[in-house]
Amino acid sequence: MPEYARHAPTRSNHRRTQVPTGLAIIGALLSCVPIAHAQDNTVPTPPVAPTQEPMPSPTPAPETVTPNVPEYFRARRLSDADLKKKREGLFVTGLPDISSDPVAGTGYGVRGTIYWNGKRDDPLFAYTPYRAKLNVNAFFTSNNAQEFTLSYDAPYVNGSRWRIKVDAKIRKDPTNLYFGITEDTLNPLRLPSTPAGGPTYDKFSDFETARKTLRPGGPGEAAFVTDALSNRFEDSELMLNLKADYALGKNGRWRVLGGYEIQRLDFETFQGRDA
User: Residue 202: helix, strand or coil by DSSP?
Assistant: First the structure.
């Protein structure tokens, strides 16, 4: 039959390709013997670690030193944040000064500061808060109290180790109160012109009213006098203070300070003055 004839060769070929299992195992063992023998005769070569070249030691970065800056300045260098905000040249800051006091009256004045910072190309710009500073204070009150002060500061004058400070003051205050220093001050309030056994005052408001009253003057006095300023005195001050310090050591952390102050103080009452 034609269909059977087509399938017969296929089955015949399939039978020829089959190999008995026992023969296949023996052949595999024989083929492994020479290879194993060859491996046994081979001397193993130890692995060679890759050659590593020694790493060169890092070279320390050279210290950055600003030219023309003495060594005792370097420890005082400003932080980068402060240095960025620092202004160049001269500039002025100020605030008004206003106060109210029942004795001194209404006060008004100004507090200001003048800074000299120099330029950024100045070698000392990054090492000093300022090259010089001047504080100014002026204050006056409606009852004639006055104060005027100056304060000058110059660190590292001309790049040296010296720092100079100068303070000056002129002050006058006629509004100081005085009620005595003995146990008599514990007694009820009374006018200095009141004779013994005269009227006293339990309230300060009544005492103030009585003090402002005009009365006929006595021998050696004006026609009319008053005790309005009897418990007040005026003090005035003149002051000049000079100071200088010198930085010691490699980093300038130690200082020697010296100074001198001249001061004059005056105290006066209002006896005999026009009220």
Answer: coil
Bridge partners, residue 65, by sequence: none
User: Cβ(122)–Cβ(144) under 8 Å?
Assistant: no
Q: What Cα–Cα distance (Å) separates residue 133 from each residue in 89, 116, 198, 272?
A: 12, 6, 59, 44
Q: How far apart are CA 262 and CA 255, in angstroms?
A: 23
Taking only the tens place, the pLDDT of each residue in 20-74 is 444 444 444 444 444 434 444 555 555 555 555 555 555 444 444 455 677 777 7
Is the Cβ–Cβ distance between 228 and 209 less than 8 Å? no
Extents of the domains making up the chain: 71-177+234-266, 179-230
Residue 184's alpha-carbon distances to 145, 179, 211, in angstroms, are: 29, 9, 18
**Rounded Cα gap, residues 18 and 245, in angstroms:** 113
Structure tokens given for 252: 């300038």
Here the tokens at position 116 are 């000299």
pTM value?
Answer: 0.65
* Cα 153 to Cα 245: distance, rounded to the nearest angstrom: 11
